[in-house]
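Researcher: Last one for today. Full complex below.
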Amino acid sequence: MNDATFLGMPAFPAAAAGALRDSQLRGNLARATGTIRSRRAAAVSEQDDWEHLREAGRAVKERTLRHLDRYLLQLEEKVTAAGGTVHWARDAEEARRIVVGLVQDTGEREVVKVKSMVTQEIGLNDALADAGIDAYETDLAELIVQLGQDHPSHILVPAIHRNRAEIREIFLRSMGAYGTAAPADLNDDPRRLAEAARRHLREKFLRAKVAVSGVNFLVAETGTAVVVESEGNGRMCLTLPETLISVAGIEKVIPTWQDLEVFLQLLPRSSTGERMNPYTSTWTGTRADDGPRAFHLVLVDAGRTEALSDPVGRQVLNCIRCSACLNVCPVYERVGGHAYGSVYPGPIGAVLSPQLRGTASEVDRALPYASSLCGACYEVCPVKIDIPEVLVHLRARVVEDGRGRLVPKPERLAMAAARWVISRPARLTAAQRAGAVAARLVARRGRVGRLPGPLSRWTDTRDAPVPPAETFSAWWKRTRR
Amino acid sequence: MTIRRKEPEMNARTEVLDRIRRALADVPASERPQDVPVPRRYSHGGAPPTGSAAAVELLAERLAEYGASVHLVSTQDAASRLGRLVAGLGPGPVVVPRGFPPEWRSTLDPDRVLTDVPALPVAELDRAGAVVTTVAAAIATTGTLVLDGGPGQGRRALTLVPDVHVCVVRARQVMASVPEALAALRPARPLTFVSGPSATSDIELDRVEGVHGPRTLAAVVVT
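Model: Here's the assembly. Have a good evening.
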């Protein structure tokens, strides 16, 4: 896998244990996710038809995915007719090669970039660097991550793990090396920090000849691309350069212009908790009198058709990258985004990454377990992805993959033993009595902590209360005779 | 563009489409897109009615909430109010796109007005103090102004690079909802939806106004 930024990261249980010990990280996350949760709740509560919008959003995505080939061909035809060029990439390597080649064709040595999950996913910046091309991230949070030589940890706000004081430090330390330095008297007022980013990036926007963007939506019917943003860095990249290269997963297409009315209502309220984000840009091909002279659209598969082939898992391709599921997730709030070992963290990452990358690696096999299955993610999902359903489905797949091993996993032995015990009432009663006695022997202060040997695989990640001295069935027999 | 690179791309297209068709083996060959129902029971707008006093009031309230300044003016007063507003913006040239209504433009100081004919270089836009435009539509519920590059609005760079954007909106352009506005807009044109001044939520997920786009947004709504 080309997930270069996360190469060598430990699987979720080990990474999460480390993250949990970082009290600064936990404080930053609790504060930020708490703020955005209440803003989202307020924005959603004033939209009376919210559930109808969610259902329409889900249905539009289902229609699209079940006829994806048709909509992609329609999109290609419309974009081409409007003066754009469409490229297809089977995998990340091919997508990188296409984009690098397009930049080289312009003769330019630098590009400005507007935040794009798919270019993170395919590791585009490293490929550009290898080709001697400087790529400047222009989204504020991406800039913080890039200047801090850090990894993104949230879909919407990749620098969510950083607080204002840390951001000030990064700006003071690193901005000067890449262009306009931060003012020496910079403090940690968010307005001053935003102002420093404005000054730093201004010269880059004004001289840029090539921009690389992602897209939020592609309208098949009209060939229109849509970018939803806040800061205006997107508008700068989409408007000022001569060449625009937009990279999109094949699932970004929607059938009609009317369908956009659903998503332009769902996305901002779910994402930043705003009625509408400050800026949304739409463009169709190229125009002689406005914007880039050349427009390239790179459509990327990179595992999406693999996810599409699973009728249960397919729904993850509904995702519009709002990040509401991250903000409500009790697991994400405590461990942060890095522990997931993927550019897509949180609940959606736990179901998306193992489908895009497969479950061959330890990181990807651990991801379906990075959840308590509480279901909060499904409640807030604007396109109704049943994340708990897919998590359980993927856990089954991971277990299935383990079948046929010469030495069965301890978990499989334990499950076989459990089946033998619970299939006869007498065996169950005896086991419960024995268990209660044993547990009371090893417990400390009413909890069962670390157990020895293979049992530690279970107890390392959870405590259990001590079972009562009398089981329910024993109590029933004694009192209801 | 070389043949060497074009060739594998053609194969990629065929292969991605093949993979999609194989992945969708469970979808009956006879199924058409419209066979997958899309229930549109959500609101399609219409209330308050387009151009009504209630719609204008809602737009003004929502724009103000997101940090735009809003000026409700009568048709008779529009020109003089706009002139005073722009005069009070501080120094620097004011960009006025082609097609901006002459009765409004006449109140602007001619020494400060910059026209985009021929197209202004981006460095000159960067030195401008403000830009004054009309809009294509406005959405009351979300506090959104939409530009489509039509007369009085200009190309997209004009409303992006200067630090102050003054928009003149006519009451009849104010619609209640997103669906109404999208139905009225033409997707073939480059559209920009503006909801308040440039902002970010990237520092501790709280909203801060003023990043790369215009940091001041003023709406003059002519009723």
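Chain A has a mean pLDDT of 91. Residues 49-300 of chain A form a domain with the Rossmann fold fold (CATH 3.40.50.10420).
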